[in-house]
Specification:
This protein has helices spanning 2-35, 40-55, 59-85. By secondary structure, the protein is mainly alpha-helical. The radius of gyration is 15 Å and the shape is elongated.
Length: 87
């Protein structure tokens, strides 16, 4: 039973971190798209991530930061493409 609880806890940590990273990335995308520079959302994400990791000792925040950095790469390319299409 203890092993099952550990597995479920780990899975919920990973899935929750992925969802949180997606929500943060999407919120930054919407904010910077409103300004007209959605490609800057990736830079803002890369700046905010080390600050969040330094300010917290939570494993959830660290995993969310990892997934946010991974998501920043495609966010940059999609933002540049969006800006080219809309200018």
């Amino acid at each position: 039973m203890y092993t099952l609880l550990m597995v479920l806890g780990s899975l919920s940590l990973v899935v929750g971190s992925i969802v949180a990273a997606m929500l943060v990335g999407y919120a930054l995308w919407l904010l910077f798209r409103f300004v007209g520079h959605p490609e800057l959302s990736a830079i803002a994400l890369l700046i905010a991530t080390p600050l969040a990791v330094a300010a917290s000792t939570s494993q959830f925040v660290r995993m969310t930061a990892f997934f946010a950095v991974v998501a920043a790469v495609p966010l940059w390319f999609v933002g540049r493409e969006w800006r080219v299409r809309h200018n």
